[in-house]
Amino acid sequence: MSYKKFGIRPELVERVKVKMKHTPTKERVKLLLADVSKQDLQDRSKVKRLVKSAANILKEPLTDTQEEQLTAFVLAQKIDPKNTFHLIKLWGMFR
């Protein structure tokens, strides 16, 4: 499933990819997501909170619509952070 199908703009993805190459920023995002479980990534309120927190770390202002699009995208992926295949699939989507 492509992020474009959820209305997420490629420009936003490109900006985030560039910002994530900055090591201190990447480490802060890693810390945010360190204890996240599969159940957390299927809970709409927790995902929305994570999206907002990550946007603050990246200094990326998001509209309410963008937050909803990103939340819907994460929920639809049914990500299991302990499953290497899921992580590779996500990596391939954004490289």
Which helices and strands, and how do they pair?
Layout: H1 10-20, H2 23-33, H3 44-58, H4 64-77, H5 84-94
Short summary:
The protein is mostly helical. Helices cover 65% and strands 0% of the residues.
Strand % is: under 5%
Give the uncertain stretches in residue-range form.
Answer: none
How many beta strands in the DSSP annotation? 0
- Cα(first) to Cα(last) distance is 14 Å
Main beta-sheet strand count, sense and barrel state: none
Helix-strand makeup class:
mainly alpha
Shape: globular
What helical percentage do the residues reach?
55-70%
Order of helices and strands: HHHHH
| Gyration radius, rounded | 13 Å
Q: What is the average of the pLDDT values?
A: 91
User: How large is the count of helical segments?
Assistant: 5
Please tell me about this protein's structure.
This protein is an all-alpha fold and 95 residues long. 65% of the residues lie in helices and 0% in strands. The chain contains 5 helices and no strands. Helix 2 (23-33) packs antiparallel against helix 3. The longest helix is centred in the middle third of the chain and has 15 residues, at 44-58. The chain is globular and about 25 Å long. The model has no long low-confidence stretch (mean pLDDT 91).
